[in-house]
Fold:
Amino acid sequence: MEVLKVSAHSNPKSVAGALAADVREKGSVEIQAVGAGAVNQAVKAIAICRGFVAPSGIDLVVIPAFVEIIIDSEERTAIKFIVESR
Structure:
């Protein structure tokens, strides 16, 4: 499964475009975000992506979860969003 990493400085429209392309091609994508700002940008990207794929008949399902990741040799808790077409 493709993993997209989103930061607080990510452009939601750009992330939405990458997300839409991966959902169309692979059927599911994982988005990882650490921190409130990154989660905010990820949620905006998912909402924008819905608008991109809806005209072609794709409905998105999002499954949120926690995941432990390593950043600069430190373990951090991230939010992951598994985005799938329904």
Residues 12 and 45 are 4 Å apart (CA to CA). Residues 36-53 form the longest helix (18 residues). The mean pLDDT is 95. The two ends are 16 Å apart (CA to CA).
